[in-house]
Amino acid sequence: MNVNPIIESIFKDFKLDGIQIPVNFLFYTGKADSYLTYYTYMEEPSLYANDTNKAEIASVTLDIFSRNNFKILVETVKQKMTDGGFTWQSNASENYEPDTKYFHVPVNFTIGRQKAQNN
User: Residue 90, class by beta-carbon neighbours within 10 Å (0-12 exposed, 13-18 middle, 19+ buried)?
Assistant: First the structure.
């Protein structure tokens, strides 16, 4: 399941307090004080019937990077993702990266969908 278009739609023109927050797949090379990157870390089958899976689940991580207080950004990201159909799973450890001077918080989500029926 390709969740990238869903995430890109959720975060199209994403702003917090009037400031544009870049959201990129895997990496970001700009200079914004806050930005997000995302990736899929697992896809798996789900909902079995008649010896086949009828649904699939994708697990994604949004990495939040900020040079400022990141708590409001984390809560906003969680709300936008859940509003967009994802289920929040967990936040990983809050870190400070001295080489880049960014706080970094990975936030994990899942989303499921039924597979198209073959007749």
Answer: exposed
Residue 30 DSSP SS3: coil
The CATH number of the domain holding residue 53 is: 3.30.2000.30
Tokens 């936008």 correspond to what residue? 80
pLDDT 10s digits, 45-86: 666 667 676 778 899 999 999 999 899 999 999 999 999 999
- The whole domain housing 92 covers 4-114
φ, ψ (nearest 5 deg) of residue 73: -60, -45
Helix extents (H) in the chain: 4-10, 71-83
User: How far is 108 from 40, CA to CA, in rounded Å?
Assistant: 10
